[in-house]
Amino acid sequence: MRWNATLAHLGVSCYDERSLESNKIGVEGATALANALVKNESLQTLYLEYNKTGAEGATALANALANNGSLHTLDLYNNMIGDEGATVLANTLANNATLHTLGLGENNIGDEGATALANALAKHESLHSLKNKIGAEVATALAHALANNESLQTLDLWDNNIGDEGATALANALANNESLQLLELTDNNIGAEGATALANALAKNKSLQTLSLWDNDIGEKGATALANALAENKTLQTLK
């Protein structure tokens, strides 16, 4: 790829025909794109889902991000980057002030990589959206990060296993967080206890607009707690 000084988007969405999704670019292709990012000053969106970049490709992209001042969105969904790739990306966030959205779902990221991302989130001032797969322990680390983060607007934790413990930790952070607008907790093994904790947070939170609890097990008790919270909350627009 030759350096282009005007291109603003490479792949408008994961469903757009111009996306680089599922193109088998691998490590070599990711490295070539990374080299281009170092020189490019206009590209804002890069979708690379399902491309088998691996940890090596993610590392190349991370190194490029440290010197790139234009990219706002990087989606590496399902690229087998693992803990190694996630940790390198987390370290890069400390030196990048422009990235707003980082998509890392379905990447075999364990507690080590997810914890590194959580720690980076606590210090990063521009990241708006983080999509990742975690468990209860890392959900707690993310909750601590939320307590200190003033920029994150979207936290997508669809299809994890954070349970009541993770949901309660996130709820405690939500009570004092003023930036998060969307919290996606679909299919997370959350019961009445976690739902009640989230409900208590909603009574105090003034920024969250969308809360998704689809495919959990909150039961009548959890639903009642959420209903009572809605009487106090003035900002939530979507509850599903």
Largest sheet: 9 strands, parallel
Low-confidence stretches: 1-18
Order of helices and strands: EHEHEHEHEHEHEHEHE
- CATH fold description: Leucine-rich repeat, LRR (right-handed beta-alpha superhelix)
Please tell me the total number of domains: 1
Query: What is the radius of gyration?
Result: 18 Å
Estimate the helix proportion, in percent: 40-55%
**Can you identify the CATH superfamily?**
Ribonuclease Inhibitor
CATH-level-2 architecture: Alpha-Beta Horseshoe
Q: In which order are the strands of the major sheet placed? A: 1-2-3-4-5-6-7-8-9
**Structural class determined from secondary elements:** alpha/beta
Number of helices: 8
- The coarse silhouette is elongated
The level 1 CATH classification is Alpha Beta
Mean pLDDT: 86
Strand content: 5-15%
Protein name: Nucleotide-binding oligomerization domain-containing protein 2
GO molecular function: GTPase activator activity; small GTPase binding
GO biological process, one term: nucleocytoplasmic transport
Keywords: GTPase activation, Leucine-rich repeat, Repeat
